[in-house]
Automatic annotation (TrEMBL):
PANTHER family: GLYCOSYL HYDROLASE (PTHR10353), LP05116P (PTHR10353:SF36). It comes from Magallana gigas. It holds the Pfam family Glyco_hydro_1. This is beta-glucosidase. Signal peptide: none annotated. Its EC number is 3.2.1.21. The keyword Acetylation does not apply. GO terms for molecular function: beta-glucosidase activity.
Length: 388
């Protein structure tokens, strides 16, 4: 059975698509699989846990990723000349009080528990130290004989370490983090952190998604600062609404600001970002939210069985951005909320400050002044062609 699974899940797709696909992603958002499926139970298989099943799930996913990478490395890489990576979702975590060392430590823990949980093993072979220390301590306090966080064997660490050629990063929003002394046995409790949103941050059609453009730049800098230089692809980034408006100025504003901050991370901070993918090409079924939250550049009429698509204003903007391979000098983008109209543009200015992987609540929204240049970055949108 083990061989059948390996052949079916890895070998067959590679043989079929090897002529057109050179970049492979083993897992998309393993955090969501583990947290939503084995801790809070809102996605398949719908199991609720207490800081136990979630870690077992993540442990197995990491080993499965490493297995897939090693199979490709052994059987296909020399002939296919492709690359294998993993896509992780993450939020930027902002200390609620930037002058409080405890809040700063809590924000760092939060990043490691969400992002480092999967990134640290594929780069260094094991879980982040802060994650191991937290879960070990909490487990002892709760009278467990062993940590609720499983351990990798020495051979597993060697096998997992270095199992990536690039990192895919899904990014949407940020959180405010406050240090607390949590007592409940849970994944959240293990972090000793409380998560909130700043009420001043622009909203969207999703309660969890607040518009924080600088967050993506700071997250990219955190990766470089913590792990060094390697290729990064933004595999998801976008914003939702609930009214399905074709004149989606809020989405244009979102993409303009986030892409501009990705570009700043590249040009000013030296982060090795190789590509960007918008989420999403068209409205789709958004998990537990169904069709009520729309992320698409194209409107989909879900009441019509043929599902006709209509380009939104954001699709035209994004098309021009790709065609021109750069921003048009039209003045600074103006914030808007879903369904509102953007004011007339004014004269642009340029901000060229270098970013550091730290932030405060007051600065997370970031400058609204674009760094205009003739080149942005190579943007990918539903392409099956190879790229470099």
């Amino acid at each position: 059975m083990k061989r059948v699974i390996e052949d079916y899940l890895l070998g067959i797709p590679i043989h079929i698509f090897s002529s057109t696909v050179k970049y492979w992603i083993t897992l998309n958002e393993p955090f969501v699989v583990s947290n939503h499926g084995y801790e809070i139970g809102v996605m398949a298989p719908g199991l609720k846990g207490k800081g136990d099943r979630i870690y077992a799930s993540g442990h197995n996913l990491i080993k499965a990723h490493a297995k897939a990478y090693r199979i490709y490395e052994k059987d296909f890489k020399s002939t296919q000349k492709g690359m294998v990576g993993i896509t992780l979702n993450t939020d930027w975590q902002v200390p609620k009080n930037p002058n409080d060392s405890k809040d700063k430590a809590a924000s760092d823990r939060a990043i490691n528990f969400m992002f480092g949980w999967f990134l640290n093993p594929v780069i260094r072979g094991d879980y982040p130290d802060v994650m191991k220390e937290q879960v070990d301590r909490k487990s002892k306090e709760q009278r467990f004989t062993t940590s609720r966080l499983p351990s990798f064997t020495p051979n597993e660490k060697l096998n997992i370490k270095g199992t990536f050629d690039f990192l895919g990063m899904n990014f949407y929003t940020s959180n405010l983090v406050r240090s607390i002394n949590a007592t409940e046995q849970s994944y959240i409790g293990d972090q000793d952190a409380e998560f909130t949103k700043d009420p001043s941050w622009l909203g969207s059609g999703s309660d969890w998604l607040k518009v924080t453009p600088v967050g993506i730049r700071r997250m990219l800098n955190w990766v470089k600062f913590t792990y060094g230089d390697f290729p990064i692809y933004i595999t998801e980034n976008g914003v939702s609404d609930r009214n399905g408006s074709l004149q989606d100025n809020h989405r244009i504003f979102y993409y303009k600001q986030y892409i501009n901050n990705v570009f700043k991370a590249m040009q000013l901070d030296g982060v090795n970002v190789k590509g960007y993918t918008a989420w999403s090409l068209m409205d789709n079924f958004e998990w537990a939210r169904g069709y009520s939250e729309r992320f698409g550049l194209h409107y989909v009429n879900f009441s019509d069985p043929s599902r006709p698509r209509t380009p939104k204003a954001s699709a035209r903007y994004f098309t021009k951005l790709i065609t021109d391979n750069g921003f048009v000098k039209e003045g600074p983008a103006v914030p808007s909320t879903p369904g509102t109209s953007a004011p007339n543009p004014t004269t642009p200015a340029v901000q060229v400050n270098v970013c550091k992987p730290t932030s405060s609540a007051s600065s997370i929204v970031g400058s609204l002044l674009p760094l205009y240049t003739s080149v942005v970055l190579f943007i990918l949108l539903g392409s099956t062609e190879t790229f470099s």
